[in-house]
């Protein structure tokens, strides 16, 4: 049967038959797939959760959910609705996420509810909302095929989105005039194929962007349409290309060539975690969007702004309000009219929905102050994936009841009081939305004795005497109604059969920039950067030995530039200790000619890098700065 791969935001169409997966000619992947999808059947079998447990002992599911409901009811009455916290993953279907949003933010009314989208796409969402009016991309994957120029900064699609990268290469090979621009501090697999590659020092991207904007301002034909452009010009005019060239040690001609290219051709602007996971990731996203505005590349065929989405249903999570501060239909709790619309739709009393909200990066303080009494974790692994992950694991003991609802054994499940097993991909049906807003219905194609996530939400809601939706079709019909007259459109999906529906490209209702003051100085010492490996995905799919063998970096390895290694007397295979303000860990060194001086690279899949992270977040989006971990020392422990 046909379905969608559950990994990245590309949403590749695949066919699953007798434990064998093959690609289909779907709108997103055009008949291609990557190695992770091919080996998905092996991954599905590994470390499944089967029985509910409480304090490590098996328990009947209904009894477990009765206990959970009692804890929720009792703590709301004794403390407040904000004593109940939800943290949800973005790889479960939209219907399931919606029912949890309705239960948590609606019926319970807690403001302590966030999605793990906070860790990857929050800064991009805030940047898009500020720049264009809604947190939506203005291009889709088909525009990548049609564009004359692909501008990629802080992303390595060859590793993170291999199918989309193959589409880019195929389009480039079919059009000799098509060019790829890559800006990155690492010579990635993507950069190796770029027509223009600008290798910047760590943190140098904001200065390079200003160097490009300086040039574009003089050439732009629609500059007067951009709000706040005069304030931006006052800053940009101080970053002339020769100054930027000297500061970043890059060729001034390369800056001018790139600027000329994007202002004279239809360009799609893309960025990834190298931009989002920064202490000023939102501002960087606004500057990239500004370049699209200055070059008349915001909207149209082969044009647009398209941040590359990490998780498979990250866009669906945003559309139905799973992120802290959001509500279904891209509504926001700081907009009173929008909150009242949702309260009226859900038929709940006025002010039931909290007008205040807390992100997962703010849960820490609430937990430390023992204000969170019940923490319900759904389909994600924060003990590994969060910043200061050791601290988060410690704080779980400050919560009266920690519940993990997941299909797989994870470090978070092992650290929880209650574990609720659920059905996984292919064992349940539902819709997902890709990074370019293609909505796909994924049918159930395998049987399971376990319940889907939405069924757990329904049972608990009913035990709390709330009127919950009974089945998936009912939830979907409600999704269609609650998103009417918003930019979210589910009406075109053929529910109940495998299908894909492309939502209309979002045409901005505003063009707005921001005067961002660069806070840049050449970094002394080392910055540790986290990242993905081609054959692994996030933190829950590390149990497939075939995938692990394929990777060229192992769990205990870190990469260091050959130049830095020579200065420090480090050789490949040496055992080194890396220390930050937060923690110290042991790694095996591996020298590389791909990294800029001053960078250490560690994959995040095993969580080691996150345990080294200090507490830096974007002040606007509250997204953690995983790409700015400051290393205080690195030394050889054993050669």
From TrEMBL:
Coiled coil location: none
Record-linked Gene3D superfamilies: 2.40.40.20, 3.40.50.740, ADC-like domains, Dimethylsulfoxide Reductase, domain 2
GO cellular component: membrane
Signal peptide: none
Keywords of the record: 4Fe-4S, Iron, Iron-sulfur, Metal-binding, Oxidoreductase
InterPro entries with a match to the protein in the record: Asp_de-COase-like_dom_sf (IPR009010), MoPterin_dinucl-bd_dom (IPR006657), Mopterin_OxRdtase (IPR006656), Mopterin_OxRdtase_4Fe-4S_dom (IPR006963), Prok_molybdopt-oxidoreductase (IPR050123)
Record keyword Iron-sulfur present: yes
UniProt domain 4Fe-4S Mo/W bis-MGD-type: residue ranges: 1-46
Keyword Amino-acid biosynthesis recorded: no
GO molecular function term, any single one: 4 iron, 4 sulfur cluster binding
PANTHER family membership: NADPH-FE(3+) OXIDOREDUCTASE SUBUNIT ALPHA, RESPIRATORY NITRATE REDUCTASE
Protein name from the UniProt record: Molybdopterin-dependent oxidoreductase
């Amino acid at each position: 049967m046909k379905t969608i791969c559950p990994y990245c935001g590309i949403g590749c169409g695949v066919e699953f038959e007798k434990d064998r997966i093959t690609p289909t000619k779907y709108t997103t992947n055009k008949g291609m797939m990557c190695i992770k999808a091919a080996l998905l059947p092996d991954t599905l079998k590994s470390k499944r959760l089967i029985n509910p447990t409480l304090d490590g002992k098996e328990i009947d599911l209904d009894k477990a959910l009765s206990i959970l409901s009692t804890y929720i009811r009792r703590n709301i009455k004794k403390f407040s609705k904000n004593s109940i916290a939800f943290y949800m993953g973005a790889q479960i279907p939209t219907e399931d996420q919606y029912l949890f949003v309705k239960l948590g933010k609606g019926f319970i009314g807690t403001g302590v509810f966030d999605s793990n989208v906070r860790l990857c796409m929050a800064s991009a969402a805030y940047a898009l909302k500020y720049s264009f009016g809604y947190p939506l991309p203005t291009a889709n994957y088909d525009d990548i095929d049609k564009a004359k120029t692909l501008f990629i900064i802080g992303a390595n699609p060859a590793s993170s989105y291999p199918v989309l990268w193959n589409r880019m290469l195929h389009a480039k090979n079919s059009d000799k005039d098509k060019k790829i621009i890559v800006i990155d501090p690492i010579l990635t697999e993507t950069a190796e194929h770029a027509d223009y590659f600008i290798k910047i020092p760590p943190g140098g991207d904001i200065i390079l962007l200003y160097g490009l904007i300086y040039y574009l301002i003089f050439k732009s034909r629609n500059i007067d349409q951009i709000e706040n452009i005069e304030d931006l010009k006052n800053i940009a005019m101080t970053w002339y290309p020769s100054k930027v060239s000297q500061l970043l040690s890059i060729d001034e001609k390369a800056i001018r060539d790139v600027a000329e290219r994007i202002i004279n051709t239809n360009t799609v602007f893309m960025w990834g975690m190298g931009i989002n996971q920064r202490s000023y990731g939102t501002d960087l996203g606004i500057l990239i969007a500004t370049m699209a505005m200055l070059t008349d590349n915001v909207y149209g065929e082969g044009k647009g702004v398209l941040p590359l989405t990490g998780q498979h249903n990250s866009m669906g999570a945003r559309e139905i309000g799973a992120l802290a501060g959001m509500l279904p239909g891209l509504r926001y709790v700081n907009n009173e009219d929008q909150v009242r619309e949702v309260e009226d739709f859900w038929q709940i009393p006025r002010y039931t929905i909290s007008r205040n909200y807390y992100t997962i990066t703010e849960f820490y303080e609430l937990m430390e102050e023992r204000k969170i009494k019940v923490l319900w974790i759904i389909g994600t692994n924060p003990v590994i994936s969060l910043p200061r992950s050791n601290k988060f694991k410690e704080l779980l003991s400050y919560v009266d009841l920690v519940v993990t609802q997941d299909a797989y054994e994870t470090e978070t499940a092992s650290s929880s009081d209650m574990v609720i097993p659920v059905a996984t991909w292919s064992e349940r049906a539902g819709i997902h939305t890709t990074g370019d807003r293609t909505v796909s219905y994924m049918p159930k194609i395998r049987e399971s004795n376990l319940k889907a996530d939405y069924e757990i939400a329904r049972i608990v809601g009913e035990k709390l005497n709330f009127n919950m939706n009974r089945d998936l079709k009912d939830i979907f019909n409600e999704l269609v109604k609650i998103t009417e007259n918003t930019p979210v459109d589910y009406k075109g999906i053929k529910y109940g059969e495998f299908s894909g529906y492309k939502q209309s490209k979002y045409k901005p209702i505003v063009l707005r920039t921001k005067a961002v003051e660069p806070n840049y100085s050449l970094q002394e010492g080392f910055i540790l950067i986290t990242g993905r490996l081609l054959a692994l995905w996030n933190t829950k799919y590390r149990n497939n030995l075939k995938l692990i063998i394929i990777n060229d970096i192992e769990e205990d390895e870190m990469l260091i530039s050959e130049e830095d290694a020579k200065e420090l007397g480090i050789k490949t295979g040496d055992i080194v200790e890396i220390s930050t303000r937060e923690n110290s860990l042991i790694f095996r060194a591996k020298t590389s000619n791909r990294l800029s001086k001053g960078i250490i690279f560690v994959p995040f899949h095993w969580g080691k890098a996150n345990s080294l992270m200090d507490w830096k977040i974007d002040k606007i989006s509250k997204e953690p700065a995983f790409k700015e971990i400051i290393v205080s020392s690195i030394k050889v422990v054993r050669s």
